[in-house]
Write a structure and sequence with these properties.
Blueprint lengths: L9 H18 L4 H10 L5 E5 L16 H22 L3 E12 L10 H21 L3 E7 L12 H14 L8 H13 L7 E4 L7
Parallel strand pairs: 1-2, 2-3, 3-4
Helix pairs in contact: 1-2, 3-4
């Protein structure tokens, strides 16, 4: 993630901005080369990776009972949140660094009531491929998670949640739902996989082949 500057970085930041402004006025270039000078002049704030995992508690809805405001909220957080995080991080990412987003399997095997969720995951998959082309040599990938035993489902009563886990476990080849640590391994892999870009790593216990 983009590091937060401490109090001692304020003067350094001002110096960086002043240098950028001066160089931009001199060259007349306020776009790509100015951003390159920002990267060169502010090494203290550079980072290698951005990982975006934010998501709201899943609210499934059918099209005939669509809550458009809730659907927009979900898109805002999961899709536009991803896009805005990438936009904010770009000036601080080193060449050869990586961006890893989070998606899901709903667009490949949607169930009844998953129209919004499937639309979001499909949009993120497309975004990953487009950004991988646009931002190279920065690598852009995503992790697609199946049902994971995580706080994402905490809005459900505990008994309902455990019944859901048990029911889904019986339909999966691995006969269980996933754990957060198992999904984390996929993120770590993509951070290290220096020849992977534009790809989605699926960690779903076999959902797509069940």
């Amino acid at each position: 993630m983009v590091p937060r500057p401490g109090p001692d970085a304020v003067a350094h930041a001002c110096a960086c901005r002043a240098a950028i402004s001066t160089n931009s006025r001199t060259s007349g270039d306020r776009s790509s080369s100015a951003q390159a000078r920002h990267t060169w002049l502010c090494p203290r704030w550079l980072t290698d990776h951005l990982v975006y995992t934010a998501g709201e508690p899943l609210a499934l809805m059918s099209v005939d009972a669509l809550d458009l405001a809730a659907a927009r909220t979900a898109f805002d957080l999961r899709y536009f949140g991803s896009l805005s995080a990438v936009n904010a991080a770009l000036p601080y990412l080193r060449p050869g660094g990586s961006i890893t987003l989070t998606t899901g399997t709903a667009n490949h095997r949607p169930s009844a009531g998953w129209s919004v969720a499937a639309s979001i995951t499909g949009a993120i998959d497309a975004l990953v491929r487009a950004l991988a082309v646009k931002l190279a040599p920065i690598r852009v990938n995503a992790v697609s998670a199946g049902v994971i035993r995580s706080p994402l489902w905490d809005s459900l009563p505990e008994e309902t949640r455990e019944q859901m886990y048990a029911q889904l476990s019986g339909s999966l080849p691995l006969r269980r739902v996933g754990e957060p640590e198992e999904v984390a391994e996929a993120f770590v892999y993509l951070l290290r996989a220096t020849y992977a870009t534009g790809t989605v790593v699926t960690v779903d216990g076999g959902t797509l082949v069940a």
